[in-house]
Design goal:
It is a single chain. The protein is of the alpha/beta class. It has one domain: Alpha-Beta Barrel (TIM Barrel). The chain has 9 helices and 8 strands. The chain has an 8-stranded parallel β-barrel, surrounded by 7 helices. β5, α5 and β6 form a beta-alpha-beta unit. The radius of gyration is 16 Å and the shape is globular. The chain starts with a strand and ends with a helix. The relative contact order is 0.17. The model has no long low-confidence stretch (mean pLDDT 94).
């Protein structure tokens, strides 16, 4: 299930605008949506996650909630994505249930992916592969690392960090299953077209 365009939502406080943007990404071929809003209030985050849950369900596309296992449980999201400070896979699994998707950020450390796989994660994410406007100080990951991950980890691999339609093919060729994109997707003049271009990279 984790492959192709993995769309991560922008920091959008206007719920209707967020919904419209994500709908366009889904119409263009996004295969996963991650809800991410670091600055929103708890009530806004609940509202936005709830409407995105209904939207993604209509497209039969999984919704993953970033960082917040309790929110993922509350809106019956398909899964949760854990960062380095978000607790263990086991704790998340106990809360969201055995059938939900759990992804883990591994940054540029292969050892974290081995640990996540042992603990029962469903996918692992690495980055940043290129300069990122969202996380300019993110650890740098290399394409060589992706090749090692592909050989050693039997889980879907998500790549993140400055990925565009111009450099995305190189990341997929190195071993990524999915491209996690925020800015190059949701800042595009035509979100549907950008999503289609990213989705097409994964089937070439």
């Amino acid at each position: 299930m984790i492959r192709g365009l993995y769309a991560i939502t922008p920091e959008e406080q206007d719920t209707e605008l967020l919904l419209a943007k994500v709908r366009q990404a889904l119409q263009g071929g996004a295969s996963v949506v991650q809800y991410r809003n670091k600055r929103g209030t708890p009530s806004l985050r609940l509202e936005q996650a709830g409407v995105l849950r209904e939207l993604t369900r209509g497209f039969a596309i999984p919704l993953i909630v970033n960082d917040d296992t309790a929110l993922a449980k509350q809106v019956d999201a398909d899964g949760v994505h854990l960062g380095g400070e978000d607790g263990s896979v086991a704790a998340a699994r106990a809360l969201v249930g055995k059938d939900k998707i759990i992804g883990v950020s591994c940054y540029n450390r292969l050892s974290l992916a081995h640990t996540a796989a042992t603990q029962g994660a469903n996918y692992v994410a690495f980055g940043a592969f290129f300069a990122s406007t969202v996380k300019p100080l993110a650890p740098v990951a290399t394409l060589d690392l992706l090749c090692r991950v592909r050989r050693e980890i039997n889980l879907p691999v998500v790549a993140i960090g400055g990925i565009t339609t111009e450099n995305g093919a190189s990341v997929l060729s190195a071993g990524a299953d999915a491209l996690a994109v925020i800015s190059a997707l949701f800042s595009a003049k035509d979100i549907t077209l950008a999503a289609r271009q990213f989705a097409n990279l994964s089937i070439q």
